[in-house]
Amino acid sequence: MKFKNILVDIQDTIAKITINRPKKLNALNKDTIQELHIAFKEIQSYTDIKTVILIGSGEKAFVAGADISEFAHFSGKEGANLAREGQEKLFDFIENLSTPVIAAVNGFALGGGLELAMACHFRIASDNAKMGLPEVSLGVIPGYGGTQRLPQLVGKGKAMEMILTAGMISADEAKDAGLVNYVTTLEGLLPLAEKLAGKIARNSSVAISEAIEAVNANYKEGVNGYYVEIENFGNCFETEDFKEGTTAFLEKRKPNFSEE
Length: 260
Fold this sequence. Notes:
By secondary structure, the chain is of the alpha/beta class. It is about 45% helix and about 15% strand.
């Protein structure tokens, strides 16, 4: 896969996607969102890929925000369409991907960058990372799911503070708030992501897909997450992975799960 604004590297069961606009601090524009959508869609079709690591190029930024020059003169209708298309094409798409996505936040993750990290299944950060949603300082609000996902992760009060002050928090503050799972050095960020991806790869991809859907169901309006869990739990019983996993447990050996 060849792209202009991102790099895709596949090694064994791990796909690493690097947002590669260093001169713009990896800011998201429409072309980058489109390329990310295509990359994630293609990766989803590869049954041997168990995990995706998403990172920014360089040492300064994961994604420093959206490319404001693209929409500074938009009308209200155009702005709403921008948010709707971006959410559907990338942010919601990643959240509902059956292949786990780890955001490795290296440096600034602001605005659309933090929203992108929050759309991933979980996040780790380098100790130089800074995170925030500064949109209200520009006279607008987060439009790629920030007002919804941030309260889910850190609670309503902390989310309100971050959004209304437009301030940034450090990596350690983000960990304390539950926004990221681990903080490490910049040099240790990718190795940690790969270690976590390796742990995921040892498990059943079929069960992981069902688990992602069940967890996400709790945050969908009009959906009873408990019912989805019950249904997906039952679905697992019909799979070869369930048979292999339970047999391996009883035989006191490591399971050999299928790639599908």
